Hints:
Helices cover 33% and strands 26% of the residues. By secondary structure, the chain is of the alpha/beta class. The strands form four sheets. It has a seven-stranded mixed beta sheet, with helices on both faces. It is globular, with a radius of gyration of 22 Å. Flavin-adenine dinucleotide binds at residues 16-22, 39-42, 46, 50, 52-53, 112, 135, 164-167, 170, 192, 298-299, 303, 306, 309-313, 315. Flavin-adenine dinucleotide (FAD) binds at residues 16-22, 39-42, 46, 50, 52-53, 112, 135, 164-167, 170, 192, 298-299, 303, 306, 309-313, 315.
Amino acid sequence: xxxxxxxxxxxxxxxxxxxxxxxxxxxxxxxxxxxxxxxxxxxxxxxxxxxxxxxxxxxxxxxxxxxxxxxxxxxxxxxxxxxxxxxxxxxxxxxxxxxxxxxxxxxxxxxxxxxxxxxxxxxxxxxxxxxxxxxxxxxxxxxxxxxxxxxxxxxxxxxxxxxxxxxxxxxxxxxxxxxxxxxxxxxxxxxxxxxxxxxxxxxxxxxxxxxxxxxxxxxxxxxxxxxxxxxxxxxxxxxxxxxxxxxxxxxxxxxxxxxxxxxxxxxxxxxxxxxxxxxxxxxxxxxxxxxxxxxxxxxxxxxxxxxxxxxxxxxxxxxxxxxxxxxxxxxxxxxxxxxxxxxxxxxxxxxxxxxxxxxxxxxxxxxxxxxxxxxxxxxxxxxxxxxxxxxxxxxxxxxxxxxxxxxx
Length: 408
Ligand SMILES: Cc1cc2nc3c(=O)[nH]c(=O)nc-3n(C[C@H](O)[C@H](O)[C@H](O)COP(=O)(O)OP(=O)(O)OC[C@H]3O[C@@H](n4cnc5c(N)ncnc54)[C@H](O)[C@@H]3O)c2cc1C
């Protein structure tokens, strides 16, 4: 069915979420002549945050948005992932550029907030309307248009509504049902918080692991604070998005109680952190990403989890293709089908990276997996050129799995 609007009228699109997928989509839809509103529950675009990667196909999207130079300049240039033992002794290290193909210019790592600021910057002085501090409360698709009631009480009508509101997507819950149907728990939960960099770390990740318990630091450039993480395995999800913070802290503290290395300090810092972020490590898997005039993109549709390290790239690629297909087709049903046909194989290849056996190098669940990791590290130590053997060809193939269509 084609839009009820007379030909030539601007199609009205509402995007929920202004992080990575949302503003990327808004940028392209605005260029293609759509009337775009973005609703974001936070009072502004959330800056700051942990480092993320833009790789392969997603770098092409950045290039087409004129952002490649800016993104390259923001590359944080981490040098290595170092693995330490109980007393802090170095067990081995892997040069990051060997793992990520940055030496081929195919991987840029930058703070998440720097990317969201760039994307917002590109879209703020346009006809795109940002609606901060608000959220969709009710949504009704009558086949002709979508009626939206916002938390603020405002009511509007749109031709298309797009959920770009992340792993715990509000749009998905309202339109497709509860998250539990689509959330595939990967067996771990994490706590992320910042701590002063008292260890003099610089441009590196340091990881200490016991079976099913992983502690580490990310030192971004020479920032005064480190990103600290405490990750643990649990057979069933230990907490959901509404878990009590205090309960979650106590559970983590108890699990890490006898931990070596910096763990006691980290547990103490976690208790007092004002930026503690915790969640389960999960993927979103859905049989179809659209219903009527409503469609999902980014983590809302197919979050891969940070074990894949590809969520931001997938958000940019999905947004680019969805906007392009909407521009190419008057009919939204055809556009959504073409979007899904084009990107689903790429999304699934990248989601699969999170559940490969090699993922246990960073996240060992058992003594056996820890021993296998140590064996691999020992072989790296004894063969200085050995690092290149660990270049991850499968991951590189997934990162580049889509030949980006040209639209417009
Ligand atoms: C600890 C951690 C480490 C990560 N590491 C990496 C990595 O190394 N590499 C990588 O590529 N990716 C990484 N990721 C994943 C990456 O952050 C996400 O995949 C990516 O941000 C997805 O972008 P998105 O725009 O789809 O969703 P999000 O970034 O989740 O954004 C969703 C937006 O929607 C807004 N929102 C939520 N609910 C509502 C609502 N009801 N109404 C309006 N707005 C709403 C939120 O405020 C937010 O702005 C990591 C994630 C985590 C948590």
